[in-house]
Design goal:
The complex is a heterodimer. Chain A is built from nine helices and no strands. By secondary structure, chain A is mainly α. Among the domains of chain A are: about 80 residues, no CATH class; about 60 residues. The radius of gyration of chain B is 18 Å and the shape is globular. The chains are: A mainly alpha, B mainly alpha.
Chain lengths: ~220, ~180
Amino acid sequence: MNDINDENLDKVILDVFFLYEHGESIPEILDLYPEHKEELQEIFQIIKLLVEEKKNIPVSKDFLLEIISRIQSKENFRGVKNKSLFSEKEAKGRLSLINIIKNQYTMATKWKVIISLAILLLVVALVGVSQLGKEKLSPKISPKEEKIAKEDSVVTVPELPQATDNVDDLAEAIFSDSSNEISQIAKETEKNLDSFDFNDQAISGFGQIYHEDEL
Amino acid sequence: MDGDNIEKNPAELIRKAKKGDTDAFGQLYESYFAPIFRYIYLKVVDKEVAKDLTQTVFLKVFCSLNRYEEKNKNPLSYFFTVAKNTIIDYWKKKKEKRLNELNLSLNFNNNFLEIENKIDNEKMIFRAIKQLTEEQQEVIILKFIVGLTNKEIAHLLEKKEENIRQIQCRALKNLSNFLKN
C-alpha cells in the first residue's frame, strides 16, 4: 500500500515539475493536487532552500579576476606552490600550462613576423624571375657580329691635304677624296656580303620550293 | 542555464577559441565560471580549494582545446567533464598525501565526513544533499545549484531527460524525508 502511495506521489511530483517548468505558479499547482498538498509544499520548500543556497555560494567577479590574474602571473603560481595545496610536480605542471598559454597569446605576433618575411621572400623571388625573363628575351650577339659592330663604329677620317694656293693640288685632293670614298664603299659592300651566309636556307631559297612547271 | 546565459553561441565561441581567439575564450570563461565554481564548491566545500580547482579546470580546457571535438560533446558538457575529473584528481591526491604523511588508513575514505564536519554549522540542506546517492547529488546540484536545464543535465550525464526527472523526483523526496527527521 505504501509502495503504491509512493508510486502515486512520484507520478504527481513528475507532473508537478512539468507544470512548474512550464510556468505554472506554485499555488495553482497545489490547488490541482489537494490530496498531496502537504508533500508538495515540502518539496517546494526544499527547492526554495536550494535556490537560496545557490545565491549564498560566493561567486563574484573578484574571484574571476583573481583567477585570471593568477593565470597571468608566474609569481603567483609559485605562491600557490608554496601554499602546499598542490605538489611541486603539479605546480611545475601549472607553470608549463602558463607557458603554453603565453605561447598561444604570442602566436599572433610570431605569425605576423613569419608572414611579413614570407611576403619579402616572395617579392625577391618575383624580381629575380622577371630579371631572368628579360635576359632570355634580349638576343645574344655572336662574336662575329660583335666584331663587325666594332669595326663599324671606327670612323676613318681621311687625311686632308695641306692647304696650298695651287689649283692643281686642289683638283688632285678632290679626286683622291672621291677615290677614297669609292674604295670605302667597296670595302663596306664586301663586308656586308661576307656577313651573309648563302648556305642559309632562309636566305638562299626563302624557305620556299618552286616547281619548274610553275616557272 | 539561468542567470548565466551565454549571449553568443558557446559552440561558436569554442570554435573561435580553438583558432586562437582569446576573446572568445574569455567570453566562455565568464559564462561558465559561476556554474563551474558552484559545482566544485559543493563538491569540496572550501572556497580557496574551489577557486584553485576552477582555475585548473579553465587552464585544462584552454590547453586541450585542440583536442576538443564538437561532434562528441557540447561545450557545457566538456567543461563539466573536465571539472568532474579535476575534482576526482583532487580527492585522489588528497588521499595519497594523507597516507604518505600521516599513514592514517582509518581516514582513507572519509572525504565526505570531513565535508560534513566543515559544514556542520552551515546549512542543513548541504548535509541533506550529502545523504543522497552520488547520482541524485549530481542531479540536484546541477539542477538547483548550478542552474542547468533537464536537457543539459541529461546530455551531461548521458541519460534520458525522463530519467533525470525521475532521479530528481526521488532525490527531492529523500531530501524531504531527511529534513523531516
